[in-house]
Structures are given as C-alpha cells and as structure tokens.
User: What shape does this take?
Amino acid sequence: MTASIYLASRSPRRRELLKQLGVRFEPLLLRLSGPRGSDVDEVQHEGEPAAEYVERTAREKAAFGLRVLGMRSMLHRPVLAADTVVIVDGEVLGKPADRDEAAGFLRRLSGRTHEVRTCVALAMEGPLMHETSVSQVAFREVSDDEIKRYCATQEPYDKAGGYGIQGLAALFVERVEGSYTGVMGLPLFETGRLLTQAGIKLL
Assistant: This one.
C-alpha cells in the first residue's frame, strides 16, 4: 500500500506507535552527524526554556524533512516529526552519553515526580502544525543496586532521561498523569488530531 506520510524519526518506539494508529508511513532519515553536521540543531540554546526547546526541535525536524523531499526528488507527502524531553528541577535530561550519566539521571528521578514533554509536528503545504503533550511521571525510590543493574542493560542509552517506560523501567514508575504514549515518545491523541486535520483518515 502507498504510504500516507513520512516519519522523520529513527525511533522504533515512534514507528510502532504510528503503526498502532494504522497509519501507512515511510521512514525519512535525517542526518545526525557527519562532515556537514546534523540536519537539525538539537542542542538546547543558552537560556532557552524547555517548553520552547522541545517545540523548536520538533518543528525544525518536520520543516527540514519537507525540504529534504524536494532535495531528494521524493514524492511530496506530509512529514511527521516529534521530540521528547524529560525535565527535572527545570533542567532538561537528554539521552545519557554513558553509564555514569544514565545512573546520575536515575538517581535524580528516584522518589520524585518529573515532567515529560513531547511535541509532535506535521509539515505539509501550508502552515506547519504542532501539538505538545505534557505528562507528570512519579518514580518510586530506586535503589543503587537497581540503577546499576538497569544501566547494565541497553535500555537507558537512546532515551530522554535515561529510561524507557515501556521496558524494564516500568518497575520504577508509580504513577503517570497525562499521556502514556507521550512519555514513550509519540502522544497518539495529539498525533491523531494533527493527522485528521491534515485530511488523513484514521478510522
């Protein structure tokens, strides 16, 4: 079947969630590094609030993805992109670089409630659309031994905040207020609303 949209994301979780909606899509891989640098600036600017940072990044991914279609002579379809941040004490916790940083993140989240923001953006002909999901995630107290064992798995290293709620870290999550799929990386309510507004039939 012909794809309805492009998904500008390498995340397997976002792909699975989009499939859950029955959306036909084709992955659109943007450059993360190389001699010319990454396609999109994903570094938080000095003084940039977390809410503005996550929206800017998602919007720029979607907008650049749309430009890529022309550069690569690809069939034009809407481009969906998303970005997720974990926020604690007003600070954004990104993807941990190594085991020590992942463990440090989890110690900060242990026994506390933190915020997860995911912005989803849709670029097509006309104005770029976006929506943001905001969730509160409460962790129970997590012991140092549990953190050590968790960081010995591969789970923490490609995820904002150093944990995946859909994996082993579900053992740490006492409560979620907001969107579970938003915490995973693609809020399906907001995504579905954007796609429907774009004329893509879901049901």
Q: What stands out?
A: Residues 50-71 form the longest helix (22 residues). The chain has a mean pLDDT of 93. The first strand starts at residue 5 and ends at 7. The beta strands are 5-7, 25-27, 79-88, 91-93, 113-123, 129-139, 173-177.
